[in-house]
Write a structure and sequence with these properties.
- The protein is α+β, with helices and mostly antiparallel strands.
- The chain contains 3 helices and 8 strands.
- Strands 7-6-5-4-8 form a 5-stranded antiparallel β-sheet.
- α1 (about 5-15) crosses α2.
- The chain is globular and about 50 Å long.
- The chain starts with 5 loop residues before the first helix and ends with a strand.
Amino acid sequence: MRQAPQALVELARAVVEPMGYEFVGLEYVHPGGGEGLLRVYIDSEEGVVLDDCAAVSHQLSGVLDVEEPIRGEYNLEVSSPGLDRPLFEPAHFARFVGRQARVRLSSAQPGRRKYQGEIVRVEDDAVWLRVDGEEVRLAFDQIDSARLVPEF
């Protein structure tokens, strides 16, 4: 899966988890020549409210200012994962076996880049989705992004 630099992930995790939150993951987008965006997702058993996001943002921005893991200008956003929770690592897929997910690949696999289906199982290097009644194997190193499909 497309990952942010591991050092940045570990730095954010080291701030978020001691504060009592689950570190879900982060996205770092840096358009060519433009201002970047660092989005950090947090969660807790009680859910996440605005004050939680503000507290983590305050702590994390202080650490980022000192450590300077990102060059140039960027905006920091701290957010709950929401109903369409992003899936960043194999353990996330395993946690939500039986749920629907949308997966976008970095390159087309049998002519397709986008899949939506039920998460059937997780292997060391792949997730299996049931798409239109058939099981499809998607290698983790080919996954660009993945999110749960909200259930209402």
